[in-house]
Specification:
It is globular, with a radius of gyration of 40 Å. A 5-stranded antiparallel beta sheet has the order 3-5-1-7-8, with no helix packed on it. The chain folds into 2 domains: 2-62, no CATH class; 72-199, no CATH class. The chain has helices at residues 2-8, 14-50, 55-62, and strands at residues 72-80, 89-95, 105-107, 132-133, 143-149, 155-160, 168-173, 176-180, 194-199. By secondary structure, the chain is an alpha+beta fold. The longest helix has 37 residues, at 14-50. The chain contains 3 helices and 9 strands; from the N terminus they run H-H-H-E-E-E-E-E-E-E-E-E.
Length: 201
Amino acid sequence: MVHQIQLLKNTQFHKKSISIVIKTTMAAMPMLAGVGLLMVCCSSSVAAMMMGGEETPTAAAGAGASTPDEEFVYEFIVNVPHHSAIGHHINDFLVDGVKPPSGSVVLYQSPDRGETPAPDSYLWDGDTTTGVAYNSQQKKDELFMTVTLKERPKKFTINYGRPLYAPGWIIKENGVAIITETGNRGSAMTPSPQRYDYVLP
């Protein structure tokens, strides 16, 4: 800018030219200032993003999302003991109509009735010709089995030897009662076997 002004002084119109150059230069200054301000603002925005200013929406979107480690734990607790004086006689246990995943069912104790008691797996093997049996009836508030699943089912199905072996259950989901039966299934000997569904609310 200094060289321009000195050059223009050597012309016969140097006064007018100096005025034009100065005015032009001064007019350009606000524009340059505006560009500088815009660059500062942009730099501030980028810095905010680099410092984590945009993390909040991402965190909010992930709130309450399920994790791969989430489990649904169901406890079958005797609320009203079954009618028969001897223990449980159960031929099958299903989750949504199919046998439960391996290792998902744990009984309060292994079957103990008969010369050669059945293995625990006869409860959930999907075969109604096998089953588990117990000598002693469980009392009120005693835990019969725990079922741990990765997904929430719609229903459980239990196949009893006879209706008189079916107690009234409390079924808890992660420690909260979701089904509470206030009576057992009666004293009938037939049909044999007898199947009941427990539909989750």
